[in-house]
Amino acid sequence: MSTRVASHAGSWYSSSRSTLNRELDQWLSEVPSEIEGKQLPIPGARVIIAPHAGYSYSGPAAAWAYKSLDLSKAKRVFLLGPSHALYLAGCALSKHSRWATPLGDLVLDTETIAELKESGKFDTMSTKTDETEHSMEMHIPYIYKIMSQTFSSPDEYPPLIPILVGNTSASVEKDYGALLAPYLADPTSVFVVSSDFCHWGLRFQYTYYLPASPSAHATGYELKRRDKDPTDPRICESIGRLDKMAMDAIETGKHQDFLDNLEETGNTVCGRHPIGVVMAALEVLEKDGKLGAEDKGRFKFIRYERSSEVEEVSDSSVSYASAVAIL
Length: 327
Fold this sequence. Notes:
CATH architecture: 3-Layer(aba) Sandwich
Number of strands: 16
Order of helices and strands: EHEEEHEEEEHEHHEHEEEEHHHEE
CATH class: Alpha Beta
Largest sheet: 9 strands, mixed
Number of helices: 9
CATH superfamily: LigB-like
Distance between the termini: 34 Å
Shape: globular
C-alpha cells in the first residue's frame, strides 16, 4: 500500500505528534460549544468550507468548521482542494492508498476513487504533484483529529477521497457537480472544501479597493504602489467588505451568483473552483428536490479572520473563513 507522506509537516504545521495534538485541541476548545443556538457538532452539517494556510495563521479559523462537522453517519470523506502548482482544466485523483499525518495515517477510499476514475473525467496526480500541493494536506490532521473524537478506533475511521480541482470553467464545475451530486446526496458522505479567501497586496497582484459608499456594490479600483493610503475606509475594512460580498454570494446557494461576484471584484478566493463544484452539486440536489427545507444545502459562514489588518498599500493579508452546510 503506497502512502502519501506528510510533506508539509515541520514547516506549515508541527511534525510533532504531541505538539500537533495539543495545538488542535487548543483551537477546538476555543470554539463555543454552540453557534446560534445549535450545539456543536451541528446535526446534519456534513459539508464545510475551511482554510488551508499554515496553522499559525489559519488553524484557529479552521477549528470552527471542524468543531461543527457532523461525522456521526460518515462512511467516507470527500476532500476538494484547489491546485496551486499544477495547471489543470479539470480534476485529478490520488494514486495512493494511505495518507500519513503526524497523528496517524488515514486510509483512502480506493474503491470510490476507482469508480470516479471510470467516469473518464478525472486525471491521476503524480506523487510529486500530490506531495507538492498543500491545499488538501492542511486539512488531513484536522480530519484525523475529529475522527479520533468521533470513533473509538482508527479501524472505524471513514476513508478519504481527495480531489484536486484545477482552473475549472463554470460549465466544467457544473459537470463535476452533477457527477458528485449522487455522492453528496448520500447521508453517509461528508464533503470538506479547502479555500482561503482574499489574498490582498502587491505581492498577490491584487490591490482592489472599495471606497465608502451606501451601496455594498460600490465601484472599486486598484490601488497603486505610490497611491496615498486610503482611510475612508481603511484598506482592511475594504478587504472585509470584499470578502463579505463573496460570502454572501456563496450563502445564496446560487453558483452563478458566486461566479458573478468573482467577475465583479476579482476577489482572489483561491478555492473558488472547489467551492463552485460543490455549489453546483448542491444545486443539482435542490433541483431534484433532495434538500427538503429551504435552508438545507446552503452554506452559512460562521467564522472570518485575516492574517493582518492592512493599513498601507505596501502591506498584505490573507483572509480565512469557515462555513457549514446542513443536509
